[in-house]
Amino acid sequence: MTKSILISGASIAGTAAAYWLRRHGFDVTVVERAPAIREGGYKVDIRGAALRVVERMGLMEAVRAASTDMRIATHYDANGRKVATMDADLFGGRTGGDAEIMRGDLNELLYDLTRHDVEYVFGDSVTGIAEDGTVTFERSAPRRFDLVVGADGAHSNTRRIAFGEESQYARDLGYYISICTVPNTLGLDREEAVHLAPGRTANVYSTRQDTRAKALFMWSSEPLAYDHRDTEGQKDLLVKAMAGVGWEVPALLESVRDAKDFYFDSVTQIHMDRWSKGRVVLVGDAAYCASPASGQGTSLALVGAYVLAGELAGGGGTEGYEREMREFVEANQALGPANVKGMVLGSPVAIWFQTRMVRLLPHLPGRDRMIDRIAGPIHRAANAISLKNYSE
């Protein structure tokens, strides 16, 4: 029976898997390349089945307390005029009890649940995994584990070692995204400020109890050649992509130059026929990244961690994990390509139509049907799994 498990990556998927695996009696070690749990990040949603996982962890009250408490989303034209306003939950596709929280806050809550009975090794990473379970590291001495869980994101090093190069599994949706912290010069208070230009979107928001703001840029593009380690080069690509966009974008791009938490990546999904091989199994973005456009990456990570640990403990093993998760993953990945087309619009006509609909939505006779068209697909995908109770 599997007893000792190494988790590569202290992501949401990694820390959640650490909690559930330890709760089922496994000996768990987490190795993370960063020197500590990553703080900050962007806001993330917890929906549907993932809410039930959070409840079973006893974290719901803490998650609600750390809510972003976003109120409205306002669209501005190139000259800074307000053109449409909508409820923040509707803007984010949230319904019912869905929760929104900063990624770093959620990961800190998960880490606090596990830090005293799970071994964390920071500042290190996996370099090799042998058939007998011997794992080599950049800094630490080799160790043997019964199973290695890859929870190290869409660009997973564990997946590369065990399954081959990323290019085999990555599906580029044709867009790029960049996020970083900027000064809250717009004076936003739990508000999203959005500007749409053909093929490009800028979004600035500030959450509850945060004096700073996050700037998010997304744009359509052919594949770009860049060095993943060259942050300044990535900033240059962002500035070039957003050149000529009005509103507050020029000033935001100036602030980006000083950002210490700059994030830049393609909007890409990971599709794999299998998530396990030998002594390695993948969870979260490493296995089935749905892309930020889906709005379901965090929920997939939380549910995947719960199901993986439960199947390993209950005898279903990695095959049971794949069987339980496959339809849920496919339903949520299907959201990405559809959603991104509504996030980055291709023409002035499309922008006019969308902002017009946002402005008229509260007054339309078929308002509820329109809302279901926006939030319904996300809600159905978020609930597209019946969670077992693995404690029984």
How does this structure look, described?
Helices cover 37% and strands 25% of the residues. It is of the alpha/beta class. The strands form four sheets. It has a seven-stranded mixed beta sheet with strand order 5-4-13-14-15-12-16, with helices on both faces. Strands 7-2-1-11-18-17 form a six-stranded mixed beta sheet, sandwiched between helices. β9 and β10 (143-144) form a beta hairpin. It is globular. Pfam families: FAD_binding_3. Residues 5-313 form the FAD-binding domain.
Radius of gyration: 21 Å
- Molecular shape: globular
In the CATH hierarchy, the third-tier topology of the largest domain is known as FAD/NAD(P)-binding domain
Describe the sheet with the most strands: 7 strands, mixed
- How much of the residues is beta strand, in percent? 25-35%
Can you count the beta strands? 18
What is the top-level CATH class of the largest domain? Alpha Beta
The CATH architecture of the largest domain comes to 3-Layer(bba) Sandwich
The number of helical runs is 14
Overall helicity: 25-40%
Structural class: alpha/beta
Q: Enumerate the strands of the largest sheet in spatial order, edge to edge or round the barrel.
A: 5-4-13-14-15-12-16
Into how many domains do the coordinates divide?
A: 2
Mean pLDDT: 93
